[in-house]
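A protein record pairs a chain with a discrete description of its three-dimensional fold. The shape at a given residue is found from the number at the same position. Here is what such a record looks like in full:
>
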Amino acid sequence: MPTHTMVENRQNEFFPILETNGEAKMKDISPASLPHFHGLSSEDPDTLMLEFVIVCRTYEYTYDEQKLKLFPSTLKDVALR
């Protein structure tokens, strides 16, 4: 049976992340390994997504809940706000 985890964002609002199995383990990933997106017009969001998928595959992040927990770490500056 799926469980819901409440995750707090920067504005102290909550949104649910559906955990499909509850057993998805998170490995330590160096922040330097993650692609970053600042929201600049010179950045390509498709490139960010491709790089993010590659990192997820490298660290064997196959479950959506793992990716959803990791993705906010890729956003910086305007993109994070």
Q: What stands out?
A: DSSP finds three helices and two strands in the chain. Confidence is low (pLDDT under 50) at residues 1-15.
